[in-house]
């Protein structure tokens, strides 16, 4: 049971880290798309601004409850 809890915690941390990495990459992309001279290349190849990862649904933000009771 303790091992399962550790693994669930690690998965949550990995997902959070991936979201931060993605949003950082989006921020860098958006800066380059808007900044000279990289904006010229971005326009040539139809690169545009990307959207940040955000959960608008409050229910999706909640950590799922896991029932670890044995029946």
List key phrases describing it.
single chain, 0% strand, elongated
Describe the structure.
It is a single chain. This protein is mainly α and 71 residues long. The model has no long low-confidence stretch (mean pLDDT 89). It is built from 3 helices and no strands. It has a domain of 35 residues. Helix content is 62%, strand content 0%. It starts with a helix and ends in a 10-residue tail after the last helix. It is elongated, with a radius of gyration of 19 Å.
What secondary-structure arrangement, pairings included, does this model have?
Elements: H1 2-34, H2 38-44, H3 58-61
What structural class do the secondary elements suggest?
Answer: mainly alpha
Residue windows where pLDDT falls under 50 for at least 5 positions: none
Compute the number of helices: 3
Level of helix content? 55-70%
- Number of E-type strands: 0
The main sheet comes to:
none
- Report the order of strands and helices: HHH
Shape: elongated
**Beta strand %:** under 5%
Rg, rounded, reads: 19 Å
First-last Cα distance: 14 Å
Mean pLDDT: 89
Quick summary of this structure?
This protein is mainly α and 71 residues long. It has helices spanning 2-34, 38-44, 58-61. The chain has a domain at 18-52.
């Amino acid at each position: 049971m303790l091992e399962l809890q550790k693994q669930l915690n690690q998965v949550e941390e990995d997902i959070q880290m991936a979201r931060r990495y993605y949003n950082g990459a989006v921020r860098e992309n958006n800066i380059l798309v808007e900044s000279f001279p990289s904006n010229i290349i971005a326009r040539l190849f139809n690169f545009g601004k990307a959207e940040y990862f955000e959960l608008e649904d409050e229910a999706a933000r909640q950590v799922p409850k896991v029932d670890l009771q044995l029946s």
